[in-house]
């Protein structure tokens, strides 16, 4: 006896004359539906109706053209998500594009310098890259002409694991540390970039005080508020872009690094592994919500497009193995809140 869901074989684990027990294949079900076909010897039976897949997070793609692990982040323009992929040689670096309307992928050579501790963000029309160099360290990407353009140099010192996000027309960049001197205090300076004027303005500092370097903090942008968390510590800070002010918030449940933040339904989220936490603005607390997929993943991407949240890529972490890059993407279809 064989059982297929949308043509993919399921694992038969038990049954009797009236029932079969199977494990549904871990494959994309972008429409949250599946047709069932039974096969036995030369006979086949096709179900009259499709069944509904009720996963909270629904796999919508598993055929990315390359492994995509989050070193630098991603940015969104329109219905597309853009990922900058660091390879062993600079000429192999990629810009990978995921079109959420068709679930199709495109890959092209990345024409600008990229480091493991670079950072990216996007506005409504352009993408922006900060990469540590003495001269050409800030770039703007125009998807309409597929062109990277050098913009005015970032005014602060070169830094690793910077914090970078966009609010409205502005790009914010700063903080971070110097990985060449690992126990150097974290940078506290913070800047705002105006793409129209091609100019930088220094904003309110955020002094972390005496602490170890922050490693890849998560930025969660909700309206004009930004929730900053992770980096290997429990600390959480909120930036109000209308007031240009930082406030310390209650601690995160765990000290994590290389987390990813995203907003969804005007709420803020952070993810790592299979876990997802929602920030509660009313009482300044965190609640763990719906888990993602079946593999724990490290350095994954998280982004929101047209009211839908997505998590994908990264290194899947089986219990005894590190470094198993994944090529799948999950969409948040049935949140429990």
UniProtKB/TrEMBL annotation:
Record keywords, A-Z: Kelch repeat, Repeat
Keyword Repeat: yes
Gene3D superfamilies, A to Z: Kelch-type beta propeller
UniProt xrefs under InterPro entries: Kelch-typ_b-propeller (IPR015915)
Protein name: Galactose oxidase
UniProt organism field: Aquiflexum gelatinilyticum
């Amino acid at each position: 006896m064989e059982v297929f869901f949308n043509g993919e074989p399921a694992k038969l684990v038990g049954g009797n004359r009236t029932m079969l027990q199977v494990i549904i294949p871990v494959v994309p079900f972008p429409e949250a539906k599946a047709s069932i076909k039974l096969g036995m010897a030369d006979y086949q039976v096709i179900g009259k109706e499709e069944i509904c897949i009720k996963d909270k997070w629904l796999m919508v793609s598993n055929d990315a053209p390359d492994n995509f692990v989050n070193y630098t982040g991603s940015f969104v323009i329109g219905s597309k998500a853009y990922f900058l992929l660091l390879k062993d040689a600079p000429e192999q670096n990629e810009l990978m594009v995921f079109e959420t309307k068709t679930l199709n992928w495109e890959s092209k050579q990345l024409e600008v310098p990229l480091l493991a501790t670079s950072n990216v963000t996007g506005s409504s029309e352009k993408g922006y890259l900060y990469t540590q160099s003495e001269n050409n360290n800030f770039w703007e990407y125009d998807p309409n002409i597929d062109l990277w353009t050098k913009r005015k140099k970032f005014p602060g010192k070169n830094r690793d694991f910077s914090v970078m996000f966009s609010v409205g027309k502005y790009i914010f960049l700063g903080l971070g540390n110097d990985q060449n001197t690992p126990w150097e205090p974290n940078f506290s300076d913070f800047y705002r970039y105006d793409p129209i004027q091609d100019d930088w303005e220094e904003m309110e500092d955020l002094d972390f005080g005496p602490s170890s370097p922050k490693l890849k903090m998560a930025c969660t942008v909700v309206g004009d508020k930004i929730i900053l968390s992770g980096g290997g510590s429990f600390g959480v800070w909120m930036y109000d872009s209308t007031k240009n002010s930082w406030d310390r918030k209650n601690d995160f449940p765990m000290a994590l690094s290389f987390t990813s933040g995203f907003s969804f339904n005007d709420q803020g989220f952070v993810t790592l592994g299979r876990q997802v936490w929602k920030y509660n603005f009313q009482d300044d607390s965190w609640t763990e919500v719906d888990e993602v997929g079946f593999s724990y993943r490290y350095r994954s991407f998280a982004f929101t497009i047209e009211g839908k949240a997505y998590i994908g890529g990264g290194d899947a972490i089986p219990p005894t193995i590190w470094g198993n890059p994944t090529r799948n993407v999950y969409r948040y279809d049935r949140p429990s809140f």
